[in-house]
Fold each of these.
Amino acid sequence: MEEETRLMLRMLSAVRLYFEKARAEMGGGIGAQPRQAPVLGVLARGGEMSQAEVARALNVTAATVAVSAARLEKLGYVARRVNEDNRRANVIGLTEAGKAEARRLSDLLDRVSREALRGLTAEERARMLRLCDVITGNLRAGERAGEEEETC
């Protein structure tokens, strides 16, 4: 196995542990799950928006947001309505229960993040962020190159 592969697997292992810790602290399977926290966070900060806007803000697909929005709606955290400007699109926003859940998850993830990053200096954290941005950019460039190949 190449060094690059070992490095990426080690990073993924750390991320998996982070989400396992967050899920354990959430308790039970009741309420929003860690992967839905970013949707709640975007809506808490940005207010009502289309699922496509949420997807762009999170750099995920609209289908991914649709799945999370459906679960959050079932839990009573999100309400959907038809976009008055574009009747083919839905707008989603937080209910009062969703606002409370967004605050709860934000506090929980902040606590787990502090634990995960304990001992790292501000400089190390900034460097880690830059490295993640480079990795993300590399992978997105590969996606775009693959899309261009498919259309030729």
Amino acid sequence: MNLFVSRHRILAPRASLILLLGLGLIFAACSPEKKPRIRTVSQSEIVESLGKDNGLFLLDVRTPAEFKRGHIPGAVLIPVAEILARLDELRENAGEREIVIYCETGGRAMRTASTLLDQGFDNVAHDSVSTFCFSIEPPPMISRVRLSQGTAR
């Protein structure tokens, strides 16, 4: 009987350690993956990329009416309400370029960026002033480039 008790006293701590390590591995494997970070892009980066074929892909997620009032030259309009329905189009048009999302105040841009990360996009950013309050006056860096006026795409 003493031999039985002494063996279990030695095995019990080992079994507990093995159980804890096993549970730790299970929890680590089941934990959600970390999303890539959403990078903040400065006005100067946007201005520098304008007109470059391999520059930033500028995604305007405002409404067509907001877009018509003014937008960054070369920006593509996909209103936030249409993002999920137009993911294939976005993948095709953006290619490997970083997607910089902007809107009027930043809320729609951040929600869209998060949605795109959830949908497998990993090269997503938003502008640092989100956005350029087009109906009032664009920031100095952008106004030097001259905002495009025109219809939504």
Amino acid sequence: MINRSVILSALVKESSTDPFVLSDSLDRIEETKLNTVELFFPFDKLPEMKSVIKDHGIKNWVYPIAGVQKMNDLNLCDLNERKRINAVYVILRAIEVAEEIGAKRVLITTGRDTEKELRSKALQQFIKSMDRILSSSKGVDIMLETGDRDVDA
């Protein structure tokens, strides 16, 4: 259950890239009553971050890939099939990373909203994306953050 959480990679940005900062931040979190940590780090940092994470007692991890999706326009509803598949593959890699660090959840987003006339096609693309993602996420729950029509991200 998530009832006291922190988005560590937003609170202490260096925790996403520096294992020493991550370790210090996790030490401080363990002294609080927080029970869930959202932490994003680049895929290539997995080996060094994994060892730091395994050394700490926090059991409830969320790997939030949604921010990366927004920054890189990785849209699960994309009408361009190649772009949609690329977004799916990034999320599948995030699921692998989550499994390796013991994260119970991955936070994803639907992606950018499309024009009203194309929404039914975009919905079909989203369904294809989610079918593939959910079939690969056996040990990890997927948390879905919906796109916002009023925000261009």
